[in-house]
Amino acid sequence: MHDKTLAELTRSLDAGEFSSRELTQHLLGRIDRLNGKLNSFITVTHDQALSAADAADKARAAGQAGPLTGLPLALKDIFCTRDVKTTAGSRMLDTFIAPYDATVVEKLAEAGSVSLGKTNMDEFAMGSSNENSHYGPVKNPWDLAAVPGGSSGGSAAAVAAGLVPAAIGTDTGGSIRQPAAFCGITGLKPTYGRVSRYGMIAYASSLDQAGPMARSAEDCALLLNVMAGHDLRDSTCVQRGVPDYTEELGTALSGLKIGLPSEYFGDGLDPEVEAAVREAIKVYESLGASVREVSLPHTHYAIPAYYVIAPAEASSNLSRYDGVRFGHRCDNPVDLIDMYKRSRAEGFGDEVKRRILIGTHTLSEGFFDAYYKKAQQVRRLIRQDFLDAFEEVDVLMGPASPTPAFDLGANKDPVSMYLQDIYTIAINLAGIPGMSVPAGLAGSRPIGLQILGSHFTEARLLNVAHQFQQATDWHRQRPALAEENA
Amino acid sequence: MQWETVIGLEVHVQLATRSKIFSGASTSFGAEPNTQACAVDLGLPGVLPVLNEQAVAMAVKFGLAIHAEIPEVSVFDRKNYFYPDLPKGYQTSQMYQPIVGVGEVEIALEDGTTKRVRVHHAHLEEDAGKSLHEDFHGMTGIDLNRAGTPLLEIVSEPDMRSAKEAAAYLKAIHSIVTYLGISDGNMAEGSMRCDVNVSVRPKGQETFGTRAEIKNVNSFRFVERAIAFEVERQVELIEDGGTVVQETRLYDPERDETRSMRTKEEANDYRYFPCPDLLPVVLDQAYIDHLRDNLPELPAEKRARFENELGLSAYDASVLSATREMADFFDEVKDVCGDAKQAANWVQGELAGALNREGLTITASPVSARQLGELITRVMDDTINGKAAKQVFQALWNGQGTSADDVIEAQGLKQVTDTGAIEAMIDQVIADSPAQVAQYRDAEPDKRGKMIGYFVGQVMKASRGTANPQQVNQLLKQKLDALC
């Protein structure tokens, strides 16, 4: 039951093999047994899940099943969920019960899905290993000594461990794709503006985007069908029709032009990762695609530009956590300034403080032009690199991460941690969609193939990933932990 | 030494949108604290702003009214600072690309001349909440009802040279925004607030002196008083050998003084940057043209029309165009009665007097413009005389009757112009007043003119005021002179 994809589960539910209640109970049981080891959930919503499952079973019996009716999933704890604790992985919000649903949460509920709870994450989505959570690090189900990636590490680990068939993540600099790669699942970061950000706790507003994390490209398509679309509550969410993302699945890839950015195969790339990615490219060639090398000349500016823009936005976005209206407030403040200082000092973790400091500095008078403005100019150049490349090829492929999942505690230095995102971060700066697809194993640790497309080509990306999954079974590999506790 | 005062104003106008600038919460004034603050206004995690189109249209209308450039693109920026009544830790404002560019406002000076004050720009922003320091036992209460109310901040050039000019400028802005219907202009409720930049320099010097910014100047009167105090303070300081420091000062109306709040060194670094949650506002020409075509007649245009087309005096034109309500009322009275001068006399005379006595504004006038216009018509067509007209006005004011004609009919105030009827009343009065007739007869002919007043009064009394006074005069004179 816990090994199936969403598409398979729907068939089973339709066939009456089991009810949504049975499925939900089964998965809640697995969470109860395994979450202690993995720490992938911050909050498990047993009661709400069971009543949603009952409602779904009723709807199915009445012939009113929607696209996701009765399907369990988990939400990264960055999505505001009405009457449920929503922490963003921070002590600052340890007591915050959201009074409203994020648009994504609302849409998924309306489609009939059953949320099992809120998954662990790096605090305010700042991190690449899930070690920056107030609720402790998440373990990688493939190897409990390894990180699951971040910041959507809890979502990735939960899907990989068979606690839930799919989960929703967010991606600001790679936070869906890198954990998907580390945990051997399929993740999609949609085009910026494709999915509403309303109710998604902001880290860096011009980069944040929500997306699906699942066991197959087909499942990601099913979820994106529900998540995508204009939202009157988010001005940056585009008014553009939403295609049926499953419709293109099954289109042959003959004639597909694949570009390999030379900058993504340089120094620092783990040989096993490179070998797996090159092996995957061969599969595509066998499916009729042509491959050529392309260049994204401004790639090496992506991390510096990101670490100006994202912290600048974050420093402003996180100003609302001041102890006045909600969230953590220090005990017995002597005056206003004391309350601000201690509430924020106690409520935020080190990485969040670091980025607030960086952002505050780069926006300061006398530094704004040199940092923020320059970074925005660089951002345009990076975007142009991709637009130029997509004049020549249909998709770009490369590794999602320079290495497989690293050990917990291995990257103590913040800058070496930042460099983990070297292949994912430019995609957010350019606003284009990207996926990570399981493409191999380095020992017991998965390797992810990254697939990139131009703006709003999610349907094509999903099919390109789907065709690979028709030809290979990397996406069907499960960690031993998922099996032994079956 | 002779000193010259240099003044620039930043006027914050609350726009009269139904909902807030970035949320759907109501903007109405006076509700229970925190009952008109939604998730967006509270700055809850995850919320996003959505720009209110009405606020944009109002800002553009203002720009068009002051003949300003309306840039095709304007951008919202975040102004970052911490304050308990600023929920998000930043104010969404427009720093670099405001919605309204360079424009100018014409102000009327007391000597009857006008002066143009340049407007540097006007930008949209959100208002903050309010901190309440009373009733919380040493704590501070926060009311976020006002948070997110749209503001248009209008920034002038330092073109004003006296407190009077500054007040005239503020009045002109008040008049424009109320004419446009984009603000209720209620200064007591904070719908219009003003920061004043003041400096002094020796007369003839070209460079500006160091300026102080005075905050919290919230009435026409306070603007004049705050400037007067501040000019005196700066001049005294300089004449005593000191220097003015650039600082923000607070005006205290109770003590009638300004006090230092913070100096330039203590000023915040607001770390402005473009708000990533809002798209740039792009206005196409058709949208701007549509708003321009639908602008109402503005105060300056109205004043000119009253003076040039209707032949009113400069004074009348300026008084009657001061507010849109007054001008609209006058225009309707004039349209109904067809005589601008009569309309002006009545609106500024009888009506203004009655309104003043009762402390009412023109919008609360118990006598409508139509009623007044019809009343004037009845005077002009001789249906009633001037004395009866005042009675009719009073009756309408008191709600006795729905129109002038009703009152005239009900109270029998229709003027008597029948010569036979008037002659009969005159004969009776003459018969009843032998002593006065004798006096009249004995008087020198050039003194008789004054003495006729008595007989007119008696006849008018006999007619209960309805006899036509000219006819009474004429016939009396004939009859009395015939007795001599």
Automatic annotation (TrEMBL), chain A:
GO CC annotations?
glutamyl-tRNA(Gln) amidotransferase complex
Keyword hit for Chaperone: no
- Tell me which InterPro entries the record gives: Amidase, Amidase_CS, Amidase_dom, AS_sf, GatA
Name the catalysed reactions: L-glutamyl-tRNA(Gln) + L-glutamine + ATP + H2O = L-glutaminyl-tRNA(Gln) + L-glutamate + ADP + phosphate + H(+)
By its UniProt entry, which SUPFAM superfamilies does this protein fall under?
Amidase signature (AS) enzymes
GO BP field? translation
UniProt KW keywords: ATP-binding, Ligase, Nucleotide-binding, Protein biosynthesis, Transferase
Superkingdom in the source lineage? Bacteria
Name this protein carries in UniProt: Glutamyl-tRNA(Gln) amidotransferase subunit A
Query: Which species is this UniProt entry from?
Result: Billgrantia kenyensis
State the encoding gene. gatA
TrEMBL record, chain B:
Could you say which protein family the record assigns here? Belongs to the GatB/GatE family. GatB subfamily.
Membrane-crossing segments per the record: none
The record ties this protein, via SMART domains, to: GatB_Yqey
Q: What is its EC number?
A: 6.3.5.-
Residues forming the Asn/Gln amidotransferase domain are: 328-480
**Group of enzyme by EC:** ligase
Task: Specify whether Nucleotide-binding is a keyword of the entry.
Answer: yes
Going by the UniProt record, its keywords in alphabetical order are: ATP-binding, Ligase, Nucleotide-binding, Protein biosynthesis, Transferase
This chain's protein is named: Aspartyl/glutamyl-tRNA(Asn/Gln) amidotransferase subunit B
